[in-house]
Amino acid sequence: MRLARGGQIDRGQRIAFRFDGHRYEGFAGDTLASALLANDIRLVGRSFKYHRPRGILTAGSEEPNALVTLGQGAAQEPNLRATTLELAEGLAARSQNAWPSLGLDLLAINDLAAPFLSAGFYYKTFMWPRALWEKLYEPLIRRAAGLGALSGRANADRYARAFAHCDVLVIGAGPAGLMAALTAARAGADVILCDEDLRTGGRLNAEALELDGQPGADWAAGVTKDLAAMPNVRVMTRTTVTGAYDQGTYGALERASPAEAARPGAAQETFWNIVARRAILAAGALERPVAFRDNDRPGVMMAGAVRAYVNRWAVTPGQAVTVFGNNDDAHRTAADLLAAGVHVTALIDSRPDATTALDVPFYKGAQVCAAHGRKRLEAVSIATTSGIDKLRTDCLAMSGGWNPTVHLTCHMNGRPMWNPALASFTPTPGAIPGLTAAGACNGTMSTHGCLTEGARVAAEVLVDLGFKPADTTIPQAEDAPYRITPLWTVPGKGRAWLDFQNDVTVKDIKQAAQENFRSVEHMKRYTTQGMATDQGKNSNVAALAVLADATGRGIPETGTTTFRPPYAPVTIAAMGAGGQGAGFAPQRFTTSHRASIAAGAPMIEAGLWYRPSYFPKPGETTWRQSCDREVMMVRNAVGICDVSTLGKIDIKGPGAAQLLDFVYTNTFSTLPVGRVRYGLMLREDGHVMDDGTTARLGPDHFLMTTTTAAAGQVMRHLDFVHQGLRPDLDVSICSVTEHWAQCAVAGPKSRDLLNAILDAPIDDATFPFMACGPVMVQGVAGRLFRISFSGEQAYEIAVPARYGESLFKLLVGLAETMGGGAYGLEALNVLRIEKGFITHAEIHGRTTAFDIGMERMMSAKKDFIGKAAAARPGLVDPDREQLVGLKPVGAVKQLTAGAHLFDRAAEATRENDQGYVTSVGFSPTLDTFLGLAFLKQGRARHGEVVRMVDHLRGIEALCEVCDPVFFDKDGGRARG
Amino acid sequence: MAEPAKTPALTLTPTTPCGAMLPLRIGTLTLSEVDPGHLTAMAPRQGGALGAALSAAHGLDLPGPGRATGTDAARAIWFGRAHVLLMGPAPDPSLAAQAALTDISDGWAVVRLEGAGAAAVLARLTPIDLRPTVFPPGQTARTEVFHMQAAITRLADDAFLIMVFRSMSQTLVHDLRTAMEGVAARAGD
Fold first, then answer.
1. Does position A122 have pLDDT exceeding 70, yes or no?
2. Any chain B CB within 8 A of the CB of A652?
3. How confident is the model at residue A109, as a pLDDT?
4. Would the pLDDT of A175 be above 50?
5. Least reliable range by pLDDT among A34-38, A71-75, A282-286, A878-882
6. Among A54, A462, A644, B48, which residue has the least CB neighbours within 10 Å?
7. Residue B2 has what pLDDT?
8. What is the DSSP string of A334-367?
C-alpha cells in the first residue's frame, strides 16, 4: 500500500506497467518491487525446487525470490530481480517457474514430495539405472526445477564493452563511499565512484537518518552533485562492480537507464574493465534472515528492506506489521513504521535484556517460531517464556543481524575473518592487492563510523599515491553502537529456510552433517547451499552457523566458503559485447572483393580473409562445373587470381641475406638480384613452419612471400629471430602485405596478356622463369614476379593497393577477351594438386622436410633454425609417413581428404593405419580424382594399390600410390 | 553463347580504403577518412643518425616511444619497436642512408574521429588509458581497436587518428560506428 506522504518518488509522474498480464501503476522512482508492493501484490514467484509461493524478501540486488522475466521473443531476459528493476513506462514483467500460473502452480506438488527431495537426493535417487539419467531423470528435473528461460534465439539488442582508468575506484556510494570519493576527489585524484543502485546514498536512502540536520538522502544527493561537477570524477550509478582481478582490474556491469536504453543505437548494458591504482570497497552490509518454520511465506521480509520501502518508496508492505530481531537495528523498523502511520502489531526481540521506549507491544526474549498463511502471511506464532502466542499480521520484518559485503575481497582466494562482536565475517586486509575496505563492509556499523572511516581510508590511499589529502569535515550523524546477540535458527518442527533461492533448509544442513559431509565445501555441494545465482548472499553465514552447531565446532573452525566473480549475475551478452555473429573476428577483404562479389563468386574464409571460391558462369549449376572450367582455362588460355592475401615481408639492410640464410633451410645469399627462389622454413623443433618464395629486389633488399595462413606467424618468427637470436644483424623487417595488391596471371597466354598492359613489354629472354623486377603498369610503378603455383607459365603482378580493384578488373577483362578469366580457390587448389605443390594441408605442423620429400633443401653448408632438431633419428625414420600421390583405380572413383589408408587386405582399424589423405580434387586435365597423402614408407611404395577408407563419410576406394607430381613432371610448361 | 567480351579501358584508377563508407556524422561526433599522403616505415640503421636527418629534411623531431611529432602536413609517429612512420611527404632521399625506408602508403586505412565524446567512443574499443593526463595530444600507441591491431594517435583533446590494416577498413568503420551510436545514445542526442 502506498503511503500518503514521503518517499523519493515523483508522484506527479505515473508509470503504467504490467505484471503477469495485469495492468498496474507506479511512480517515477519506483522499482518493480516497490510498485508491486504499492499495489498490494505479495506473491511474485515460485521457488526453484519445491515451487513454494514466494514474495519479495529484500530491496536490493541480493533478492533471492522476486525474479521475473522481461521482454518477448529474442530479447526475452529471464531472472531479473524485481528489486533492482527500474519502473519504466510499458514495462511488462512475467513471473517464472510456475505452471500453469503463479497462483495455481501444479508443480507445487513437489512441496508435498519434500521428504523425498532432501539434501543429496539427486545423488541418491538417480544413481540407478544409469541409462535413465540422460533420457529421463535429467530432462524431468530440468523441466520441474529451474528459473526463467531464454528464448533460444539470437538477441538483436546491443550491448557494449568499455575500459576506464582511474587513481581511485570507490565501490559503493553509501556514506563511506561518498566520503571516500569526496576526499579523494578534492585531493585531485582521478576518481570513479560506482554504485549498483540508480542513485547514490546507499542505506541513507532507506533510513530516516539525518546528517548535519538534513535528511541523509539529501546529503548524499548534495555530495554527489558536487562530485559530478568535478572534472576528475566519474560517478557511475546503475553500475555493479562484479569482480576483482589481477593488477587492479575490476569488472563492472552498467545498466543503461530506461530512457537511454530506449534510444536507437544504445547499449542495454555495458561491461566495464576498470583499471584502478587503488580501490576502496564501501559495499555496505546485507541483512540476514532468521530461520524459523515457513519463514519463506510472502510477507516475511527483511527489516531493513521494510524500512527501505517505507522511507524511500513510501510503500508499506503490510497493514499490520510485526517486527522481529536480535539487534537494536531492528527497533528502528518499528519506529519508522510508527512515524509513517503504519500499525505495528508487535516488536519481538530475542534478547532477554532488550528494552524499548517505543509505544508498541514488546516481547523481549521471545522468538517468532512459525509463519502462517500460504500465498500471503496471515499470522505468526511467537515462542515466549510463558508459551506460544499467535498474532495476526500480514508482514513480518525480520533481522538476524548484518553481514558485511565481503564478496569482492574473496575474488582472489582471500578468506574473510570471523568477528565475534558482529557475529559475522569481515574482510582480511590485503586480500585484494590495492583494495581497502571501509564502512559497513569492514564491520563499521554506525553512520558516523562509516563516514569517518571512508574519509580516513581515502586519506591513507591518497598519501600512498602521492596526493596530499585536504582536511575533511565529517558530518554529524548517528553513532549508535551495534548490539547483537546471535540468533540463527528458532527450534521447532517443520522446515525452516536458509537459502531461499535454492530451497535449502536447516534440516538439509543437519542431514549433510549427519551423512558426514562436514566440511563446509562438501556441505555446500551436497545441499547446494549458496550455489544459486545470489551465491547465498542472505544465507551463507547462517548455514555455516547451523553446520558448526551440528558438528560441534565453532564458526571460525568450521571455516567459510568463498565467493567468486561475478558479485551479481552478468549477462553473457554484455561480457561478449560486439562479438556476436560476424563480430567474432575482423573481416579482411581484398581490394578485388567487390568485383568478385559482383561476379557472383561465393566467398570462402581463409583465416580472417575472404577469398572467392569460384566464379560461376551462366548455365553452371554446380561448383565443380565452374572449377573444372577455370582449371582448363588456366591450362589452355589464361586465368587471373587475386593472391594479395599471401604474406609479403620486406627485409632490408646489410644483414638481410644472412638473416634469410638463418631462417630458411636453403641458401638465399647466393640469389642474384632480380631472381626469385623457393624457400622452406622450419620451426626450432625441426618441423616445417612455412614455405614460399623470396625475391631479391636489390643487394640488401629482399621480399619474402608467406602462405596466407602463416603470414602472422612468420612475421612474429622473424621478429623473434632478429631481436632474440641475431640482434647483431643490421636488418629491418616490415610487413607490406597490405600495401601491395597482387594478382596471379597464369596460363599459356599470360605473357600476351601482360604485354597488353605493361608500359614496356617483356619476353622470355629478359624475364625468364623465376625472374622478378620493377615494371610500369599504365604509368603505375609495380612489381612483376615470374613464379607459378599452377605449373603453367605464370606471373604475379603487384601494384599499390589503391589500384588493386582496378588492376583486377583490367586483368580479368583482358583475360576474358583471350578465352580466360578469373579463377577461385577451388581451381587454384586443383591446379596445385595436379602439380603436387604443398599447402598447409600438407605442412600442417607435424611434418618434416623429410616427410614432404624436400630433405635435399636442407643445406649442409650452413646452420639454420631447426637443423639440429630435424636431424633427430625419429624425424628421418624411413618408416615415417611420406608424401605421395593417389589415383583411384577401383570401382569407386572418389577420394576424400581426411580419409585413412590401409593395406589392401588389412582390416580398416586404427592399429592397421598406414597414413591419411590431406588434399583431393578432381582433375579435369587428367580426368580423374587426384589426392595427396602421407603414407608409411610412401616413396618406396609407388605403384602399390592401397585402400582408402573414410569412416566418417562411409567412402572406400582403391588407390594407386604414385609420385605426387601428376602433371608436367619436368616443369617445362612453367619455364615457357 | 556468351557475348564476346569487350576490351576494357587500359587505365588504373585508385580507390581509398574506406571509400563511400565515410564520412559519418553521429551526434556530436564525426568520422572521416584521411588521405595521409605518403606513409613510409623508417627503421633506423645501426649507428645511423635518423633524428638529425629527419629534422634537416622534413623539420620533424624524431619521436620517442609512444610519441608523435609534426602537424597534418607532415608527421612522424612512433610505430612500434625500431619503427617510425613518416606520414605526409615523400621521404627525402637523404633519409635512406640513416634508415631502411619502406613504402606502406596503401597498407593502412587512416581515419579521424573527432568531436565531444571521441575518447568515450574509443574507450569502448581500446584498452589503453585515454585520460588526458596519460594520453595527451601528441601521444600515440600501437594497440587494439576491438579485435584489430591498430595505431591510435591523439591529435587534440577531442580528435584521434586511427589506423588499421587496409583490408579491415569495413570492420573498423562498423566497430567505430557502433561505438559512436552507443555514445550518442548515452548523451541523449
1. no
2. yes
3. 72
4. yes
5. A71-75
6. B48
7. 46
8. HHHHHHTT-EEEEEEES-TT----SSS-EEES-E
Which grid coordinates belong to A485? 546477540
- Inform me whether the C-beta atom of residue A351 falls under 8 Å from chain B C-beta atoms: no
> Any chain B CB within 8 A of the CB of A126?
no
Rounded to the nearest 10 degrees, the angle between the axes of helix A329-339 and helix A303-313 is 30
Rounded to 10°, the helix A506-514/A520-527 angle is 120
Angstrom distance (rounded) from CA B170 to CA A236: 32
The CB density around residue A774, as the number of other CB atoms within 10 Å, is 10
Picking from B16, B124, B130, the nearest residue to A161 by CB comes out as B124
Q: Beta-carbon neighbour count of residue A879 at 10 Å?
A: 8
Percent of chain A residues topping a pLDDT of 70: 97
Cβ contacts of A549 within 8 Å, gap of 6 or more? A488
Residue A125 pLDDT grade (very low, low, confident, very high; cuts 50, 70, 90): low
Q: Is the pLDDT of residue A418 over 50?
A: yes
- The answer to whether A723 contacts chain B (CB < 8 Å) is yes
- Per-residue pLDDT of A662-688, as tens digits, reads 999 999 999 999 999 999 999 999 999
Q: Give the nearest chain A residue to B6 (CA atoms).
A: A817
pLDDT at A669: 97
Q: Is the peptide bond before A129 cis (omega within 30 degrees of 0)?
A: yes
Q: Report yes or no: A798 at the B interface, CB cutoff 8 Å.
A: no
Interface test with B, best of A166, A263, A722 (most B CBs within 10 A): A263
The verdict on A264 touching B (C-beta cutoff 8 Å) is: yes
Contact A806 B100 (CB under 8 A): no
- The answer to pTM > 0.90 is yes
Of A273, A738, A807, the CB nearest to B127: A273
A residues 321-350 closer than 8 Å to B (CB): none
Residue holding cell 614455405? A691
Q: Pick the residue from chain B with its C-alpha nearest to A160.
A: B124
Domain ranges of chain B: 22-36+106-189, 38-104
Ordered by where they begin, the domains of chain A are 10-111 (3.10.20.440), 160-285+404-465 (3.50.50.60), 592-645+739-823 (3.30.1360.120), 647-735 (3.30.70.1400), 877-975 (2.40.30.110)
| Fold that domain B38-104 belongs to in CATH | Alpha-Beta Plaits (3.30.70)
Q: For all residues of chain A together, what is the average pLDDT?
A: 94
Is the C-alpha dihedral spanning A681, A684, A686, A689 positive or negative? negative
Q: Chain B neighbours among A 183-202 (CB < 8 Å)?
A: 190
Please tell me the predicted confidence (pLDDT) of residue B6: 57
Question: pLDDT-derived band of residue A976, with 50, 70 and 90 as boundaries?
Answer: confident
The hierarchical CATH code for the domain B22-36+106-189 is 3.30.1360.120
Best interface-test mutation with B: which of A159, A161, A165, A269 has the largest number of B CBs within 10 A? A165
Residue A130: predicted pLDDT: 65
Q: Residue with C-alpha cell 550455489? A: A531
CA distance A898 to A893: 16
Measure the CA–CA gap between A477 and A473, rounded to whole angstroms: 12
* Beta carbons of B8 and A265 less than 8 Å apart: no
Q: Calculate the average pLDDT of chain B.
A: 95
